[in-house]
Every structure is written in structure tokens, then in C-alpha cells.
Specification:
The chain is an alpha+beta fold and 269 residues long. It has 2 domains: 166 residues, DNA ligase/mRNA capping enzyme (D-amino Acid Aminotransferase, Chain A, domain 1); 77 residues, OB fold (Dihydrolipoamide Acetyltransferase, E2P), CATH 2.40.50. Helix content is 22%, strand content 29%. The chain has 6 helices and 15 strands. Helix 4 links the parallel strand 6 and strand 7.
């Protein structure tokens, strides 16, 4: 009975997840004339015109000053401070009680969902509103026109050299759409994904008495272990059973398991 109750709770939680735009992986498609921007490692936030929501549909408890002048139309973007600061950002924005540190957070936009027109027109709508309201904590992620693969490679290398995570390229001619599409592509040295912690493997040698690796499960039921990337502190106090963790990987094995999976962080959004 308890198991059924837990499954029901998990199903109800998943029902709240938002159907947002998601990128596929770039693999030498023709992207001439597309828009490209750096991929920010922040907490994704969707503004529905009234509330700020996480990817899973959870309300983000932003302070009133942060949301009171946001528009009645929808926005999509990242709550962000600077590169390499994800854990700090997550601790600030996912807290139920707004912290003073929200003053460091900027809402970096990459879409105005369901607004009329192509990508450029939608961003123009958002920019006009930002300018009219003089919103200093809201900005649009810089978009550049990509002339082709060589320019994309050069831009990607410049982003990575300055500590960035990757690049997003988008067919700017399209009307807005929900879900995953080949009209939005991501370019990264390694992919990342999320999995649920379902168990542990005991450590050995210098890790005796600690966790050797996390047993995790993907959304499709695929199970495997992640040992790489775990610090001694994490091995002593690992993510809890049921928590979602992010990991990096380099493609898949013939059995459909991520290659060279390496732990990144716990995801709370």
C-alpha cells in the first residue's frame, strides 16, 4: 500500500512538469542563418504571467520586488549570477524563504513563449518591455547570427575558452513551439543528463566505510552506477535516495548506458 502511495505521489509530481522548449544535439546540421548564444548554467525559470516556475512546475519563491514588474505575457530564461556558480544560484532561488542574496540574481531571457511572430520578434517584445519598465534585473541573452559551421566553431571555442558551458543555436524563423525539436540544438564538449538515485555501492580501499558509487536510474528505467566525480565529502554524505542528480557523459554504450558518466551535482529544480 505504501509503495502504491509513493508511486502516486511521484506521478502527481511529474504531472506538474512544464512542457518547455528543449534542445537536441548538434551534429553538423545546416545552421546557416540561425541564431546562436552561450548556454548559461543557471536555474531555468518560466514566468507564466503571474508566477515564476521551475522546470518541474514548482513555484520559485522569488521576492516581491523581483516579480512585481514582470509582464502579463510569458517569459523563459535562466536565473543566473556568473559562470561556475550553479550550486550557489540553486541554494538562493530554490529556498522557500527569499534570501537577501536574490539581489545578485539576474533573469536572463531566451524566449517569450507563445508570443506572436518569429524568434526575433518575440525577443523584441520582451526587450521593449524591459526598456519601458527599466528592469535592471532582467536581460536578454545576447544572440548572434551564425553564418555557418566555421563561425559556430569559432564562437563555441571562444565561449569555452572563457569558462562557458556551451552554445545554443536556434532557427529564428520559426513560430514558437513547445517540446523538443531539431530547430533548437545545443553544442557542448560533453552532454549532461539527470537520473534518480536509487541505491549505493560500498566503497573499498581508501573509500572503505564510504560510498563507492551511486546507483541511479534514468527516466526510461535504465540503471547504472556513477563513481567518477564524487568527492570524499560526498562519499561520506551522498545524495539521498530519490534525489535527482546531474551527470556528464560521452555518448552511449551498445546497451544504452551513458559512457564515462561523471557526477556533477544534485538538482533541486
Amino acid at each position: 500500500m505504501l509503495k502504491l502511495f509513493v508511486v502516486a505521489l511521484l506521478f502527481a509530481f511529474n504531472l506538474n512538469a512544464l512542457t518547455l522548449q528543449k534542445a537536441n544535439v548538434y551534429s553538423d546540421q545546416n545552421i546557416s542563418g540561425w541564431m546562436m548564444s552561450q548556454k548559461l548554467d543557471g536555474v531555468r525559470a518560466y514566468w507564466d504571467g503571474k508566477k515564476l516556475l521551475s522546470r518541474q512546475g514548482q513555484v520559485i519563491n522569488a521576492p516581491e520586488w523581483f516579480t512585481q514588474k514582470l509582464p502579463l505575457f510569458e517569459l523563459d530564461g535562466e536565473l543566473w549570477t556568473k559562470r561556475g556558480d550553479f550550486e550557489n544560484i540553486q541554494s538562493i532561488v530554490m529556498d522557500k524563504t527569499p534570501k537577501p542574496e536574490w539581489r545578485k540574481i539576474k533573469y536572463m531571457l531566451f524566449e517569450a513563449p507563445h508570443a506572436e511572430g518569429n524568434f526575433s520578434k518575440r525577443l523584441e517584445l520582451a526587450q521593449r518591455y524591459i526598456d519601458e519598465q527599466k528592469l535592471t534585473h532582467v536581460a536578454i541573452i545576447e544572440q548572434k547570427i551564425c553564418d555557418g559551421k566555421k563561425e559556430l566553431d569559432n564562437y563555441f571555442q571562444s565561449v569555452m575558452a572563457s569558462g562557458g558551458e556551451g552554445v545554443v543555436i536556434k532557427d529564428g524563423s520559426k513560430e514558437y513551439f513547445d517540446g523538443r525539436s531539431d530547430s533548437i540544438l545545443k553544442v557542448k564538449l560533453a552532454e549532461d543528463m539527470e537520473a534518480k538515485v536509487i541505491g549505493y555501492k560500498n566503497g573499498s580501499g581508501k573509500f572503505t566505510g564510504m560510498v563507492g558509487s551511486l546507483q541511479v536510474e534514468l527516466e526510461d528505467g535504465t540503471q547504472f552506477f556513477i563513481g567518477s566525480g564524487l568527492s570524499d565529502a560526498l562519499r561520506a554524505n551522498p545524495p539521498k535516495i530519490g534525489e535527482m542528480v546531474s551527470f556528464r557523459y560521452f555518448g552511449f554504450t551498445k546497451n544504452g548506458k551513458p559512457k564515462f558518466a561523471s557526477y556533477m551535482r544534485v538538482r533541486k529544480d
